[in-house]
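[audit] Reproducing an earlier prediction to check determinism. Same input, same settings, fresh worker. If the tokens differ from the archived copy the diff job will pick it up downstream; this log only records the rerun itself.
[audit] input (350 residues):
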Amino acid sequence: MHRLGVSTGIALVCAASSVCAQQMDIYWIDADGAAATLIVTPERQSILVDAAFNRPEDIYSHRIKAAMDDAGLEQLDYFVATHFHGDHVGGVYALAEMVPIIEFIDYGDSTLTAGRNAENFERYLTAAETGKRTSVSPGDVLPLRGVDVTVIAGDKEFLDGPLAGSPGPNPVCEGADPDGLYCRGDDCAPTGLDSDGEDIYSLGFHLSMGDFQYVNVGDLSWGGLHALVCPSNNVGTIDLLDYPHHGNNVAPQFVWSLEPIAAVSSGGATKGGNPDGFEVAAASPGLQGYWQMHRSLGSDDAHNTEERMTANMTAENDQAHWIKAEVSADGSSFTITNTRNGYSESYTTR
């Protein structure tokens, strides 16, 4: 993993102000291996991507609310449900009782029709009744001011052409596995486009502001990641990647085609962050910084990022520190800060 051309130092994480309003802020909220990412545009429009688990005392909803308070938000303009697993939408019902959510964005009705996951979807639908629900498809664009957000995946459908330009055949795809195996212990199964489960249906999007490019694809599994970049890279190269699937089951061809300058993983102490996923990131061409919400306690030092780039170091009783990115108004640069220790790194966009 190369980290050339990076300026380091201690950055002040600003609250809402006339200065902060000129930048875009992205908060990765500690959800102990679940997912909750808050995006606040320079116009102070807001997108919450996923809402973590449903847990006693609504602990994760309160953490999201704390990030909103830090950003000076009183409502959410959009809630984006990447998919309907409990670690992504479980907390939205409680959150909708805490703050107004204007519009709920999803890929369509859940594929999960029984058990706990079906209950998660029903609770999502109940929360969505407090606002407007919109189901989107690849190519759809969210109406934001000064920021372009384009859906690139959802409901097992993917971009059928490049976001920009004509990329042609992608050399990274030569010999690439379109399926991959996802293992839980000794139980392994292929995760190609024909696989079952909710992950392959995940909604993903590409965000651009000036020169800055960011991608979040939720838990999109191997086959979907492959489809986005092979045989042609329809996404292009980017600056910042929300590392897929909590750092598990990550198709190398996806990461290596996007060539992110920096990436943030939402893996927890004991959920996500497996060694294979870390190795994919470490081998990514041009990657200058890999940030983790938690140290992966099941992996050794060689398969965790540096301590100073890790927001939470323990499995229990941590302080729920977040990671925050601040993107300049023209998109020419961005700074990522670990709020546990104030350590930051600044990057120049492509």
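[audit] rerun output stored. Observation attached for the diff report: The two ends are 18 Å apart (CA to CA).
[audit] end
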